[in-house]
Design brief:
Elements (H helix, E strand, L loop, with lengths): L8 E6 L5 H16 L6 E3 L7 E9 L6 H5 L3 E9 L23 H10 L2 E5 L8 E2 L2 E2 H6 L9 E14 L2 E8 L5 H12 L3 E11 L2 E2 L4 E2 H10 L4
Parallel strand pairs: 1-12, 3-10
Antiparallel strand pairs: 1-3, 2-3, 4-9, 4-10, 5-8, 6-7, 8-9, 10-11
Helix pairs in contact: 1-6
Length: 231
């Protein structure tokens, strides 16, 4: 039987459009009911954007102390880069603009750039990100029409594979270090090609040895919490 107060690690497949907070809050509400304890510690190990789905690791009770070590593990993502336009958010939170032709590009270029982007790099986070600038989230400043002053961060792209090419859509798989913005990779990819690019879709598949194939849907995780009372 699980003991959520002593501590459990739950693998959850976060749905599209949900924030990571939404998922944690859903389980936290269930834990209050199933344990009879008003304040059960619950946290997640690595935020996923609302427009990304996939593996979210949720820790309860004393297992929340392991969150930092889990966050430091290598992560893997699959997704789609759309070439031929840019967005201010580097994904579809904002409307595409600056449209460019892509017919002159070759598949060889795509594979070459992906390989060249592997390794350590000083990455610039998107202005629409959760980074704190002067005590405020960068995305809040950006939504107010202000331009946050972002700083680069050293990250590592362990592998970057183009798995399928459909016109100007590149289906990829990336393994990377903590703190890597896949949106920035998509933006930089398009910038190198001179046609612009943004992240059209994203799914986190792995964190360390944890795989999304072993994760519960949010409905399954909620039902799992509800059916195991510790009272």
């Amino acid at each position: 039987m699980p003991n959520f107060i002593k501590g459990e690690v739950l693998l959850v497949d976060k749905p599209l459009t949900w924030t990571s907070f939404d998922a944690v809050n859903k389980l936290k509400h269930g834990l209050k009911h199933s344990t009879g304890v008003k304040k059960v510690k619950v946290g997640h190990a690595g935020t996923l954007d609302p427009l990304a789905s996939g593996l979210l690791i949720v820790c309860t009770g004393k297992k929340t102390k392991t969150i930092e070590s889990i966050q430091g593990l290598k992560k893997e993502y699959i997704g789609i880069i759309q070439l031929g336009a840019t967005t201010q958010s580097y994904d579809l939170e904002t409307e595409p603009e600056n449209f460019q032709e892509t017919d002159h590009l070759s598949q060889e270029q795509f594979y070459k750039i992906a390989k060249e982007m592997e390794g350590e790099v000083d990455q610039m986070p998107p202005i629409f990100s959760a980074k704190k600038i002067g005590g405020k989230r960068a995305y809040n400043l950006a939504r107010e029409g202000k331009i946050p002053e972002m700083k680069t961060k050293r990250v590592e792209i362990h592998s970057f594979e183009i798995e399928k090419i459909e016109g100007a859509e590149l289906h990829f798989r990336i393994a990377c270090s903590k703190g890597t913005y896949i949106r920035s990779i998509a933006h930089d990819f398009g910038k190198i090609l001179g046609v612009g690019g943004y992240l059209k879709a994203l799914r986190r598949t792995k964190i360390g040895e944890h795989n999304v194939t072993n994760a519960m849907s949010i409905e399954e995780a909620s039902a799992y919490v509800d059916m195991h009372s510790l009272v």
